[in-house]
Design brief:
Length: 384
């Protein structure tokens, strides 16, 4: 492969990773780009999980053997089965510089230096003739490895390929660093700084997606909206630092209770308002979690419990075609819970279906200018 061809391959790999919109896209672009650049038939990207002492596969691309998934959930290998990892990353790298890639072939010895050479055995088992392994270094530490293989019967990798793989690993490292920076920026953009829960921006996005899924597939979508009682009193009498601690503690309660539902999103909407968004669980399951939230919130020191409202497409609340409507229903239920000083959630639609007072409140015309009403905040959402 000429220098110009290899240069274009490097550029293609870098561009592919730069265009990735998620970590998975980035992993796949890295493996595909390296596989193409080295004329391989298969490639994998793996991360070294030090705390678990294992090498976990993130992506497999190209001609996958039986059992090799593109994005495996549980494909991992104990590091002690691959002593060359620590050999190359600690012994040969100790003198300084970047760790070099190396080549293995199916013709190599399976027994080497007193241990079973797993890579050679794997090449033979999967019908591959050779592989090149390139350590990936990120922020000055070993991050993982890039692995590219060729099928049996094709030219095996040579020293020049190993040198080129070392260059590709550096490009992949830069791409992974960029992906991590973007992910951190996204995390901060969608995270409430005080509680660590999701913020209103992420709730809006997820709720729009959930309502679309409800319309297309009939999935049950439920929203639990909670208003933490007594926060103003705590702020005024004990200071905002104490109020912040109360918010943090309730955020922990919400997260703990929300974990009872699969895939739930726990969020702080702002001020003293929080919510849970659940897609899939039945309305009854969500109501039980809402009751648990109310019970645990009532036990918090300094606080005065919560007003909790629930709206679920699993209850008779009428047609839900927009996130705005479900939000208004849940907020109206919360407003009623606060007015009744209820120690349990108020659930939209469970006191008369369409004639339910919560449903009627949510569906009432917007208030005239100057009229104060609790659900006014939801009217600021664009029509759905």
């Amino acid at each position: 492969m000429g220098d110009d061809v290899r240069l274009r391959a490097v550029v293609t790999l870098a561009q592919g990773m730069a265009a990735a919109r998620s970590p998975r896209d980035s992993w796949r672009a890295a493996a595909l780009g390296a596989c193409h650049a080295l004329s391989g038939s298969f490639a994998a990207l793996s991360v070294w999980e030090r705390e678990r002492g294992r090498l976990r596969v993130l992506a497999n691309v190209g001609e996958r053997a039986e059992g090799e998934e593109e994005f495996p959930e549980n494909e991992a290998y104990p590091v002690h089965r691959f002593p060359e990892i620590t050999e190359f990353l600690h012994e040969q790298w100790a003198g300084g510089g970047e760790p070099d890639a190396w080549v293995e072939t199916a013709e190599g010895p399976v027994e080497r230096a007193g241990y079973c050479h797993q890579r050679v055995a794997a090449l033979r088992r999967r019908g591959r003739g050779s592989c090149v392994v390139a350590p990936i270094v990120l922020h000055g530490r070993a991050w993982g490895e890039l692995y590219v293989a060729r099928r049996a019967g094709t030219p095996v990798f040579g020293p020049g390929d190993a040198d080129f793989a070392t260059v590709l690993a550096s490009v992949v490292s830069a791409g992974i660093a960029q992906t991590e920076r973007l992910e951190e920026a996204r995390r901060l953009a969608f995270t409430d700084a005080l509680t660590g829960l999701a913020n209103r921006r992420l709730v809006d996005l997820r709720l729009d997606e959930a309502v679309e899924r409800h319309g297309a597939q009939g999935a049950v979508v439920s929203l639990v909206v909670c208003d933490l009682n007594g926060l103003k009193r705590v702020n005024d009498t004990l200071g905002h630092a104490t109020g912040d601690r109360l918010l943090e503690r309730f955020g922990s309660v919400l997260s703990l209770c929300g974990a009872m539902l699969p895939g739930v999103l726990a969020a702080r909407l702002g001020g003293d308002e929080f919510c849970l968004l659940a897609v899939g669980p039945s309305a009854d399951e969500v109501v039980r979690v809402g009751e648990e939230i109310c019970s645990r919130a009532g036990e918090l020191e300094l606080g005065n419990g919560v007003a909790c409202g629930i709206a679920s497409t699993g209850d008779p609340i009428g047609e839900v075609t927009s996130a705005r409507r479900l939000f208004r229903l849940a907020d109206a239920a919360q407003y009623r819970a606060k007015a009744l000083r209820s120690a349990k959630p108020v659930v939209a639609g469970r006191d008369g279906g369409p004639d339910d007072p919560v449903v009627r409140l949510a569906d009432a015309p917007p208030p005239v200018p100057g009229e104060r009403r609790r659900i006014r905040g939801r009217d600021r959402r664009p029509p759905g």
